[in-house]
Amino acid sequence: MNDIEKQQNKGFFGWIERVGNKLPDPVMLFIILAAIVIVISGIAGATGLSVEYFDAEEGENLTVEAVSLFSAGGLNHIFNSAVDNFTGFAPLGTVLVAMLGVGVAEWTGLIVSTLKRLLSNVPAFLLSAAVIFAGIISNIASDVGYVVIIPLGALIFAGAGRHPLAGLAAAFAGVSSGFSANLLIGPTDALLVDITNAALNSAGINYEMSITANWYFMIVSSVVLTIVGALITDKFVEPRLGEYKGDYRPDFESLTDIERKGLRNSLIVLIIYVVIMAFLMFPQGAVFRSFDEAIGAESINDFLSTGLLLAIFLLFALPGLAYGLTVGKIKNSSDFVKGMTEAMSSMGNYIVLAFFAAQLIDYFEFTNLGTILAVSGADLLESIHLTGLPLVLGFIVVAGFINLFIGSASAKWAILAPIFAPMLYNLDIAPEMTLIAYRIADSSTNVISPLLNYFPMILIFAQRYDNKAGIGTLVSTMLAYSMAFLVTWSLLLVIWFLFGLPIGPGASIAL
C-alpha cells in the first residue's frame, strides 16, 4: 500500500469507505435491504404499528398502519408490482434517454474536443466552482442535472487532468445537496409553497405564501454553497482521492484542423437548435407554454418537468451528429446508431441495479414505514417543546434524518408541513422560514442516502472510472459535502434569523 492509499484509509472517512466497500455487491445489498424491509414490515404489521397525522389535502386526520409484506396482500404486491416498479422507476427512463444523446456526443469525440478547447489554463478552484454552480442551477430543470451535469462533471475533471471522481462528486453535491438553491424560481418552489399554504389553511390559518417566498435566501445560498463546495472539492475530496490511476485517459493532444472544423459546425447546429427551442418556449403563447395555476399565468414549468428530457437528448445528439459527420466518425446511419448503442451497452449494470433498487423503494413506500418514521420523528421533536431558533435547528436535524429514508421532497413535506408549518406559525416563526429550514434539510443529506432514486446511477458512473468504487467510496466521498452544506446552510439561516433579513419579496423570518 503506497502513501496515498494509506492516507485514504485513515480517519473517520477512511473507516466509512472500508466498511462500506466490504458490503456485498450493490445489487445484492439492495436485495438484502429489501428482505430486511419485508421482515420489519411483518413485525410492524403483526404488532399493529400505526401513527396518526393530519393530511392537509384531505382536510382530516388519517391513521396510517404498517402493511405487512408477509400478508396475502403483501405477497401479491411483491409479485404483481415487480415489473411496474421497474418500468415505472423514474430515473430509469430519464437516465437512458439522456444517455442516448450524450452517447452520440461522446462517441463521435465532440465532448473530448470541446473540453480540450475550453479547459486549457482554467484555475482549479474556478473549475470546481463552475461544476458545483452548474449542478445547483440545474434543478430549475427538475432531475435533468442528475443525468447530464454529474457525468459531465467527471468528464470535465478528467479533461483537465484531474481526478474524474472528484468532478463527479462535485457535480453530485451541486445537483443533489444544493437541490433547493437557485437563482431562478422553478417548479420545486411552486410545489412546496402549494403544500405549505394547504397545510396552513387546513389548520384555520389565513396565510398565503407566494412562489417567491424564499427567493432572496436561495440566491445567496447558491453563491455560498458554490464557494463551500469548491473548497471541499479542492482541499479535501481531491487530495483524499489521490492520483487517478484508472483506465480512463482522455486524449490531451492539440486539436487538429478537422476537429476545429467539427467544433465549428457543431456550434452552428447548437445555436440553430437553441434559437428554435427559445422560440418554442419563451414568447407569449409559445408552443411549450401552458397556464400555471401556481402563479396564475403562462409558464414553461410543465415543459421543464416533463418535456425537457427529449430536448436534452437533441441538445447532445444533433451537435454530436454534426461533429461526427465533419470529422468522418459518422459515415452512415449505422454509425449514428452505433454511438447510441455503445452508450446503452455501458448502462447494463445500471439497469440490473435499477430493477432491485426500484423494488426496495416501492416496498418501503407500500409498507408505510417511511410515513410512520416521518410522523414519529415529528412527534418526538414536538414533544421536546423547543421554541425559536433551537426549534428551527432541531427541525432541520430531524427532517435531514428522515430524508435518508424518504427521497421525495414533496412527499416528505406533505407529511411534515401540516405538523410544523402551523406549529411554528403559532410560535411567531413565519412559514417562509419554516420552508427554508425544510429545504436545507431535504437537500443536504440527499447524497449519502442509498434510497435516493438516483444513487444507483451515480454509483455506476463512479465505477466507470474506478471499477473498485463501491458504496463506501461514494458515501465517504459525499459525506464531506453533506456535512459542510448542512452546517454552512444552517449557519446562513441563523444569520438571517438573528438579523431579521428579508427572505424573499415581502417575506420575513418572523410574523
TrEMBL record:
Pfam families: ABG_transport (PF03806)
Coiled coil: none
Stretches that traverse the bilayer: 27-49, 89-111, 118-138, 144-161, 168-193, 213-232, 267-287, 307-326, 347-364, 384-406, 413-431, 443-462, 474-499
GO annotation terms (biological process): p-aminobenzoyl-glutamate transmembrane transport
Record-linked InterPro entries: AbgT
Record flagged with keyword Ligase: no
Swiss-Prot/TrEMBL keywords: Membrane, Transmembrane, Transmembrane helix
Keyword Membrane: yes
A GO term for molecular function: secondary active p-aminobenzoyl-glutamate transmembrane transporter activity
Domain of life: Bacteria
Descriptive protein name: Transporter
Organism: Tetragenococcus halophilus (strain DSM 20338 / JCM 20259 / NCIMB 9735 / NBRC 12172)
Lineage: Bacteria, Bacillati, Bacillota, Bacilli, Lactobacillales
